Amino acid sequence: ALLLLVPLESALVAPTERVVMTAGEIDAPPEVVWRHVISFPDIEEPMTWVFDLGIATPIGAHIEGEGEGAVRHCRFTTGDFVEPITAWDPPHRLAFDVTEQPPPMKELSPWEGVSPPHLDDFMRSRRGEFRLVRLPNGGTRLEGRTWYALDIHPGTMWTPWSDALVHAIHRRVLRHIRRLSERGQ
């Protein structure tokens, strides 16, 4: 009976914007962490099993320019997220819109270049933000946020999975920034 409600839900329920926040502590001051938030070299950490299934995963980031209006490119295994900077407050806050994004995954197929329509626009990143909070011990609490819309039904079934994937992406980036910052690079 629940499967019969899926077409009804997709016709009546518009995609809603969600926000996912992941945080971690770094043993380095915000001024050091900031450098690795705006741009970082390739992530050397092996991919977890989730990303081995073809889910897009971050591999590096670079920025063109400085301040509001600069454009950050977060490289994923499927292409670049293009992120024009909307808030530049070093070393406290970096916010950006997402104007372009790559496919959410590489379809597992024996044929190269398969681009199935079910991957188009079902999960759209809207914007993101990093907040750096100075801790009493001199370290930094780094918070990463992503706002996204999910257009797949039934939403109540897919939302926990999509939130978990966004957290996994955040954790990968936050661990990399932590390693770079604590090494003093």
Task: Please provide a written account of the structure.
The protein is of the alpha+beta class. The chain has helices at residues 2-12, 30-38, 49-52, 155-183; strands at residues 17-26, 58-64, 71-76, 79-89, 93-97, 123-134, 140-150. It has a 7-stranded antiparallel β-sheet with strand order 1-7-6-5-4-3-2, with helices on one face. Strand 4 and strand 5 form a beta hairpin. Helix 2 packs across helix 4. It is globular. It starts with a helix and ends with a helix.
What would the keywords be for this entry?
single chain; about 180 residues; alpha+beta; seven-stranded antiparallel β-sheet; 4 helices
In DSSP terms (H or I, runs of 4 or more residues), the helix count works out at 4
Q: What is the chain-wise order of helices and strands?
A: HEHHEEEEEEH
Sheet with the most strands? 7 strands, antiparallel
Average pLDDT value?
Answer: 85
